[in-house]
């Protein structure tokens, strides 16, 4: 049996769980693993064999075993979260030992470094299923996409869901303003412009303004209105790892940053007023969005003249060749409410709030809250016949989606004519 010793190579954040257990005598491998732990903000324990105490083996969120020490662990109690590292991920002997240990992955460094760093960080953060991520896009100018996005987020938070609202449209005026929180303390997009790689999901959420029981990532009033694609990718991935619900207000024009956001969206809602010109404008929006997002649906928004000369919601959906997710009838008091600082969706009996409540209710009934597709298998990690998940199960818990590979957890929730005129689901 071996005693475990804490490493001084990294510092554990106050609210994080304990770090991984590293079992190896290979000094070069140990240096590499300590470096990866430091990058993930984890404080590991180091041992040269099976720990003397049962708790020291069972308690760590992750155990990383060097191939040099694997034979010493054969016959130990099985546990989840064991990673076996070696110089050659195709070594048959290494795989036999992995099977005997019940390891979830066999990987070689340095090819598997990025995957392992993310897996360590996930283990330390205690990440669960990724957030259900819904994107809202206006079919034309002035459609009210920001209002719908805000209402979806306010409604989700009111029903107890952990909610993050992301302002992905730099020219939209700011979702913090829409929610009456432009003076609320917290970071805005410019603070994340240099983000690369991995952003800690807990730190992201805690740094943002808290408005109406949800967190909001919006814009400041400065002149910088660009989101580097790498920053959008890193921030969206962190938002999804936090779990719960993420709602993203997206621009109509799909630039590189918008494409990064769309690549991590599970379902898109295209908001179109029930007017012919609005439908014509939306037809130009659809192709760009569908290049990245597979599940895109129409929400028809009623207009004051709806009963006189507006188009039926079914016709709007037919013109843009998309399924209809529902209709939000015209709400005459909405503009006045927003002017008085009442956030969208706060009037629980209004058409907008009823639509949003119906949407989230349908999601809850389907059991689809959380989780889109994960990214492809990283280099140096061998999927398939040995231990670990099926091929394509790339990253660990909470991994973000990659563009063009989203598998929607809400696909099939709604038929093409699933919503009634009052915003409720049929």
Structure in words:
An 8-stranded mixed sheet has the order 9-10-8-11-7-12-13-14, with helices on both faces. It has a 6-stranded mixed sheet with strand order 1-3-2-4-5-6, sandwiched between helices. With 426 residues, it is an alpha/beta fold. Helix 3 (92-101) links the parallel strand 5 (82-86) and strand 6 (105-108). The model is unreliable at 7-16 and 371-426 (pLDDT under 50). Helix content is 32%, strand content 15%. It has helices at residues 27-39, 54-58, 92-101, 113-125, 145-158, 175-178, 201-207, 229-241, 256-262, 276-290, 306-309, 313-320, 334-339, 351-366, and strands spanning 5-6, 21-23, 45-47, 63-66, 82-86, 105-108, 132-138, 163-167, 210-211, 214-217, 245-250, 267-273, 296-301, 324-328. Helix 5 (145-158) crosses helix 14, helix 7 packs across helix 8 and helix 8 packs parallel to helix 9. The protein is built from 14 helices and 14 strands.
């Amino acid at each position: 049996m071996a005693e475990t010793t804490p490493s001084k190579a990294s510092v554990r954040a106050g609210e994080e769980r304990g770090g991984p257990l590293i079992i190896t005598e290979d000094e070069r491998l140990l240096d590499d693993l300590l470096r990866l732990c430091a990058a993930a903000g984890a404080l590991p324990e180091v041992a040269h064999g099976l720990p003397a105490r049962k708790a020291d083996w069972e308690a760590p969120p992750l155990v990383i075993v060097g191939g040099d020490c694997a034979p010493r662990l054969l016959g130990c109690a099985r546990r989840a979260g064991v990673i076996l590292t070696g110089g050659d991920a195709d070594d048959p002997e290494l795989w036999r030992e992995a099977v005997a240990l019940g390891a979830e992955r066999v990987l070689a460094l340095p090819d598997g470094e990025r995957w392992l760093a993310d897996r360590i960080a996930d283990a330390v953060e205690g990440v669960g299923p990724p957030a259900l991520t819904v994107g809202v896009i206006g079919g034309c100018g002035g459609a009210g996409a920001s209002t719908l996005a805000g209402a979806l987020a306010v409604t989700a938070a009111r029903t107890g869901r952990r909610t993050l609202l992301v302002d992905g449209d730099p020219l939209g005026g700011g979702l913090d303003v829409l929610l009456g929180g432009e003076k609320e303390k917290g970071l805005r997009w410019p603070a994340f412009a240099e983000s690369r790689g991995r952003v800690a999901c807990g730190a992201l959420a805690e740094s943002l303004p808290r408005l109406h029981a949800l967190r909001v990532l919006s814009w400041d009033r400065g002149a910088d209105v660009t989101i580097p694609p790498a920053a959008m990718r890193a921030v969206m991935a962190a938002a999804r790892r936090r779990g719960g619900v993420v709602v993203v207000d997206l621009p109509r024009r799909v630039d590189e940053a918008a494409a990064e956001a769309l690549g991590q969206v599970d379902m898109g809602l295209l908001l179109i007023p029930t007017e012919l010109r609005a439908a014509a404008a939306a037809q130009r929006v659809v192709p760009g969005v569908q290049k990245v997002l597979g599940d895109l649906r129409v929400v028809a928004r009623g207009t004051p003249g709806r009963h006189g000369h507006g188009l039926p919601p079914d016709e709007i959906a037919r013109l843009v060749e998309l399924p209809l997710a529902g209709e939000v009838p015209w709400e005459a008091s909405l503009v006045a409410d927003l002017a008085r600082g009442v956030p969208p969706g706060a009037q629980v009996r209004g058409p907008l709030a009823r639509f949003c409540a119906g949407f989230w209710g349908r999601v809850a009934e389907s059991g689809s809250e959380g989780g889109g597709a994960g990214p492809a298998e990283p280099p140096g990690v061998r999927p398939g016949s040995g231990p670990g998940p099926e091929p394509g199960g790339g990253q660990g818990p909470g991994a973000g989606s990659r563009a063009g590979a989203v598998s929607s957890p809400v696909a099939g929730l709604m038929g093409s004519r699933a919503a009634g005129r009052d915003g409720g689901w049929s």
